[in-house]
Amino acid sequence: MAALWWRRALRGLCAAALFLSQLSVLSGRAGSLMTTKLSQPQSTLAKSLTSTSTSAPYFKASESTDIPPYVTNCPSNGLCSRLPPDCMTCNTNYSCIYGKPATFDCKVKPHVHCVDENNYQQENFTINMTCQFCWQLATSDYVCTNSTNCMTVSCPRQRYNATCTVRDHIHCLGNRVFPKMLYCNWTGGYKWSTALALSITLGGFGADRFYLGQWREGLGKLFSFGGLGIWTLIDVLLIGVGYVGPADGSLYI
């Protein structure tokens, strides 16, 4: 009986020890899980603090001090109404009548300083100009490129594609740089008076044709003695009225 009792008691102790060991293992896992969960926000906070502390310090970007290129063409402290068009920005007057004077509200561009008639600095002002587009201006109000590849003396007269730019003191609507078809009007340096003088005096020897660069006609006149004088008289008339010109197609000076 005693041996049986001791055996039961030993079994109970073993079961209790096994229960306590399992309980300790479970409590250890729970504690590690709690530690992990609690450490995660701390690590996140630490990372955020670290990233904030190691990031470059913030400096306010200084305003650009570069002067725009148009400022060089804008007179300082001059009358606002006389500024070049590149120095101002104007609102389009949609009620203006073509060909009639109109008033436009304008504002100076940044870095541009101007005054009114009383020498007070101002930014907003008005200008008066004719209501028309830039390409409708008179030929004296814009400058165009020249072409040396077209014939000025031809029938019909030849044209070329030119790029025109409005002069600085002229105000107009639309683009200030525009394409336009113009007549060939370049010159190669030949003088009309010289050609006419050669035709009258030495035309029988073809001097006028040689001067104008027309070598074949000059040789023809030279060996035919001016076509027995008939060709010479005809050339005097043709050069006199400007019908015969330089061989390169340019205009007389």
UniProtKB/TrEMBL annotation:
Membrane topology category: Multi-pass membrane protein
Protein origin, superkingdom: Eukaryota
This protein's record includes keyword Signal: yes
Annotated signal peptide: 1-28
Chief localisation class: membrane
Location within or outside the cell: Membrane
Keywords: Glycoprotein, Membrane, Signal, Transmembrane, Transmembrane helix
InterPro entries (alphabetical): TM2, TM2D1-3-like
Residues passing through the membrane, by range: 190-210, 222-244
Short name of one Pfam family: TM2
TM2 domain ranges (all copies): 189-236
A GO cellular component annotation in the UniProt record: membrane
Record-linked PANTHER family: BETA-AMYLOID BINDING PROTEIN-RELATED (PTHR21016), TM2 DOMAIN-CONTAINING PROTEIN 3 (PTHR21016:SF7)
Family according to the record: Belongs to the TM2 family.
Protein name: TM2 domain-containing protein 3
Organism: Atrichornis clamosus
